[in-house]
Sequence to fold (579 residues):
Amino acid sequence: MTPVLSVHGLEKRFGAVVAADALSLDISAGQKVSLIGANGAGKTTFVNMVTGYLKPDSGTIALDGVDIVRRSPRNVARLGISRSFQIPQLFIGLTAAENLAVAISGAQSHALSLHAPAEAHGRRDKALELLGRFGLADLADRPISELAGGVRKLIDIAMALVRRPKLLLLDEPTSGVSAEEKFATMDRVIHAVAPDAATIVFIEHDMEIVSRYADRVLAFYQGRILADGSPRDVLKDPEVRRYVTGGAP
Amino acid sequence: MGHRRLHPLVMILLVALATLCGRALPTWTLSLATVAASNALIALGIVILARTGNVSFGQGLFFAAGGYGVALVANAWGITDAVTQMIIGAVCGGLLGLVIGPLIARYSGIFFGMLTLALSMVFYGALVKTTALGGSDGFNVGRPSLFGMVFTDPRAADFMLYAVSVVTTGLAGIAATILFRSELGLASLAVRENNLRVEYLGMSANRIITINFAIAATFAGAAGAFALMAQRHIDPQFAYWTTSGEFVFVAVLAGYQSVAAVFVASLALELVRSFSNLYLPNTWQLVLGVFLLGVILFLPRGIGSLWVRGRHKRIEPAAAAVATQREAAQ
Fold:
């Protein structure tokens, strides 16, 4: 079976810094993969290359067997890879529903209409349905600028879901969320994305979240993959404990 | 969202009312209102473009393209109909906007503004050097007609031009309100706030900017046709930077929260200019400057903020968007 994402020999350098060092990996449909690693290990660079924001120096990236290595973020999104951001990338002057409406307009097959209302009933209903999955329907008409960071994070993820992506990349979905709320937030995210995104890759620093929600872990260190396997195996790996988790359970 | 919106039919009635009011206005006011309507049309285009976060300092380029296009066609084929001339002007401006738009949409902020200014000045320089178009003196065109009717009475001719310009600008205003509420209108605001996220959602920010740019150019071209009809003369001054600056002046006065504000701002500017010119002929520019300063100080979001409230958050400067883009790039 063709993997959803297939990466081979990916290299990226920023001067003397090696952000990706001959990275090769396959991700199969339905997996929930967690990327772990210290700051600067190359996780976000990897996500940026997969989504077309950064071009690798060499190597290949294929989505369902289709080469995407030189494509723009716009084309990559159209092919089926969506992402959320460590710092939510929202339109802060617009309301939550309007943010979703922009995403819904972008996901349709025809060109943007110059006369059809942006929040016509179909789009508004879809926006409310998506917000409802995250328990945010009552905030639909609030401007993003008035919403808390955790809520913004969920709306950011909701926007990434609009295209029903083949692969969803989440950059630290629980960062900024309190320790008491992190499992509830992650439960909500996993539950909300389940109908639209079967394959999920998420960057995470919290090993409890990784252990509980990932079925595969990739540990990054200095631009290469230090360990690849189940959470139990990877988190027990001596090198991972030494260079990545610092002995965290 | 929660402010009242006029139904398009009500807007059409208001435009019809404004047109009929022209019958009661003194002749000098008719000319002033025609100029105000024409300037409002271009400023409306600037406001439409500004919703993507970009300001054009060179709308004189399309203003001149519309004017020269109409003048050449009128002299070559004897087309004098005001509506046809307006359409020709709009097409000339719009086509030029479609050519330039995709090239210029790659730039943003001050680079975008300065490029538009540079292009308009290149066009100005070319017009000055083109003797076939009258060089710096320009050339004259005949009196406009309307649907075969020729207006020899100056008052009737002024009213005809007033009516055509007010109806055109009014309809453009109605179209703009529909556009602002449309998918493209919302996506334009999104581009203004965070064009990187727009790309990640699968849309082309450049295409959205280009469409808005072409609409602004179309409006400027039509306004160029009106200016030509009013003056019956065209020269390179149409493309000069001070002409473009005046249109930006109207847009700044209006703010970009309300289409109606553009018309009010344009009329207010013409009134202040006319009266200060009349009563303070040596210092009228000073009065104009003080007027603009007053608006910026007391109505920093433009005249439109007098009646549109509660939406200020959606037009916050893009500083936050810039910050978030920086984060995304890390």
Summary: Residues 8-329 of chain B form a domain with the ABC transporter involved in vitamin B12 uptake, BtuC fold (CATH 1.10.3470).
